[in-house]
Amino acid sequence: MAKSNAVEPLSEIVGPLTLVELCHICGSPADWLIDLVDEGILEPLGESRPVWRFESTSITVVRKVQRLQSDLRLNIPAVALVLSLVEENAALKRRVQLLENDPPK
Hints:
Layout lengths: L9 H4 L5 H8 L3 H9 L18 H16 L3 H26 L4
């Protein structure tokens, strides 16, 4: 069988992560990551901290938060607002793109 040259998404390579694993990968303390969960920036699967699992995309989110805090010296609520606005902006751009490509009726 021929080997595929397609790049697999990170989420398919790395399974769900525990809080400890996410701390280790991102070099961040658990208390800080828990603050991100409390603020709604990270959304773990599971009802309680001992069983929390984070999707691999959480790594990217944590690194964005780290950069925003480092570069702009934002606190966690401000980071949550910035990330929300970035997401909303991207959604609006997608909507405009769809409307521009929709042929007139």
